[in-house]
C-alpha cells in the first residue's frame, strides 16, 4: 500500500474535479538557496490559486507521499540539510523504508500520476549533460517524460546542459516538445535559442487537447511544454556562457558526479552571477505555474 497524504485543499479539489497543478520539491531543497526557496514555493502556489487552480507540491516525509504541503512543511524542507533528492530509481525505496526526500521532475511526474494530476509546473528539466558522451549523464527526467502521462511546463532546457543532445533524446523517446507562442526552443535564462522546437502551440486549450489525444490513442508518456522566460527577466546568453563554462570546469576538476552535478552547477552559477540567475529563475517558474494552471483548467473540461 502506498501511503498518500493529500492536503485538505488538494483533497477538496479532487472531490470537486477542480484543476490541480503538481509542483516539485527538489527545486526547494536543491535548486534555490534559503530563504528565496521557501518564499518562491509559497508564491508559486499563490500564483496557481489566483487563477482558480489548486497547487499540489510533492514530497516524501517519513515514508508518506505528501500531495500538497502546508506552510510549516515547506519551511522545514527549505531549511533542512541533506534532504534526499528522489528520482524514479529511489522513490519507491524511500517510501518503503520510511525515508524523507524531495521529488525531482521524474519523481514528481510519478507522484502526479498516482494522484491523478495531469499537469506539472517547474523551472527547468534535467537533460543530457555536457560531456555525456564520456560521463553517460542523462537525467532520468527525459525517460520519465517518455512513459508517464503528465504534461510538464518548463522554461526549456538550461545552458548547463547539452541542449541539442537533450532534444535528440526527447525525439528518440517520442516526447512532444511544444514551444509556447514561438518557434524557438527557449533556453531557460534566455527566451530563445538557436534551436527550433519540434512543435509550437499558441494557447493552453491546444496543449490540453494534445495531452488528452495521447491518452485516447493509448500512447504512454507526457509532453514537455517549453515556455519562454518573460523578456524583461532574461539574462543574455553571452553573459552566461563563460560563467557556465567556469562552473562546468570546476565540477569536472572536483570530480562532481551523479545527482550532485545539477545542484552544484546551479549553486555556482548563482554565486558567479551574484544572484542574478536566481531572480530570472523565480520569474520563469512563476510564469510556468501560470501557464500550467491554464492548461489544467482546460484539461478539467475535457
Ligand atoms: N533544473 C533546474 N532547477 C532544478 C532542477 C533542474 O533549473 O531544481 C532539478 C529538478 O528537480 C530536476 C533535477 O528534476 O534537478 C534534475 O537532476 P538530474 O540532472 O540529477 O537528473
Ligand atoms: Mn544526472
UniProtKB/TrEMBL annotation:
Broadest EC class assigned to this enzyme: lyase
SUPFAM superfamilies listed in its UniProt record: Indigoidine synthase A-like
Primary gene name: psuG
Domain of life: Bacteria
UniProt-listed Enzyme Commission number(s): 4.2.1.70
Binding site for Mn(2+): 137
Residues holding substrate: 85, 105, 139-141
Protein name, as recorded: Pseudouridine-5'-phosphate glycosidase
A GO molecular function held by the record: pseudouridylate synthase activity
Role noted for this protein: Catalyzes the reversible cleavage of pseudouridine 5'-phosphate (PsiMP) to ribose 5-phosphate and uracil. Functions biologically in the cleavage direction, as part of a pseudouridine degradation pathway.
Residue ranges crossing the lipid bilayer per the database entry: none
Details of cofactor binding: Binds 1 Mn(2+) ion per subunit.
Catalytic activity: D-ribose 5-phosphate + uracil = psi-UMP + H2O
InterPro entries hit by this protein: Indigdn_synthA-like, PsuG
Similarity comment: family membership: Belongs to the pseudouridine-5'-phosphate glycosidase family.
Subunit description: Homotrimer.
A Pfam family matched in the record: Indigoidine_A
GO biological process, one term: nucleobase catabolic process
Keywords, alphabetical: Glycosidase, Hydrolase, Lyase, Manganese, Metal-binding
GO cellular component, one term: cytoplasm
Species name: Tritonibacter horizontis
Cofactor: Mn(2+)
Active site (catalytic residues): 24 (proton donor), 158 (nucleophile)
Amino acid at each position: 500500500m502506498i501511503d498518500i497524504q493529500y492536503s485538505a485543499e488538494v483533497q477538496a479539489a479532487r472531490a470537486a474535479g477542480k484543476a490541480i497543478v503538481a509542483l516539485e520539491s527538489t527545486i526547494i531543497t536543491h535548486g534555490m538557496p534559503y530563504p528565496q526557496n521557501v518564499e518562491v514555493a509559497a508564491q508559486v502556489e499563490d500564483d496557481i490559486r489566483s487563477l482558480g487552480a489548486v497547487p499540489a507540491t510533492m514530497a516524501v516525509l517519513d515514508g508518506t507521499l505528501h500531495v500538497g504541503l502546508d506552510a510549516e512543511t515547506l519551511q522545514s524542507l527549505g531549511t533542512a540539510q541533506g534532504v534526499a533528492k528522489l528520482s524514479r530509481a529511489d522513490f519507491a525505496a524511500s517510501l518503503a523504508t520510511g525515508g524523507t526526500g524531495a521529488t525531482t521532475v521524474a519523481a514528481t511526474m510519478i507522484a502526479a500520476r498516482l494522484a491523478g494530476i495531469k499537469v506539472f509546473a517547474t523551472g527547468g528539466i534535467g537533460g543530457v549533460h555536457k560531456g555525456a558522451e564520456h560521463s553517460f549523464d542523462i537525467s532520468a527526467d527525459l525517460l520519465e517524460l517518455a512513459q508517464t502521462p503528465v504534461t510538464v511546463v518548463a522554461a526549456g532546457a538550461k545552458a548547463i546542459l547539452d541542449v541539442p543532445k537533450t532534444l535528440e533524446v526527447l525525439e528518440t523517446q517520442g516526447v512532444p516538445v511544444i514551444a509556447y507562442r514561438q518557434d524557438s526552443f527557449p533556453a531557460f535564462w534566455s527566451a530563445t535559442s538557436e534551436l527550433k522546437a519540434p512543435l509550437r502551440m499558441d494557447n493552453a486549450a491546444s496543449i490540453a487537447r494534445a495531452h488528452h489525444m495521447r491518452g485516447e490513442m493509448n500512447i504512454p508518456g507526457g509532453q514537455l511544454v517549453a515556455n519562454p522566460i518573460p523578456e524583461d527577466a532574461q539574462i543574455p546568453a553571452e553573459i552566461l556562457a563563460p560563467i557556465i563554462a567556469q562552473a562546468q570546469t570546476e565540477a569536472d576538476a572536483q570530480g562532481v558526479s551523479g545527482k550532485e552535478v545539477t545542484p552544484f552547477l546551479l549553486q555556482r552559477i548563482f554565486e558567479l552571477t551574484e544572484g542574478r540567475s536566481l531572480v530570472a529563475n523565480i520569474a520563469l517558474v512563476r510564469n510556468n505555474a501560470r501557464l500550467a494552471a491554464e492548461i489544467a483548467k482546460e484539461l478539467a473540461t475535457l
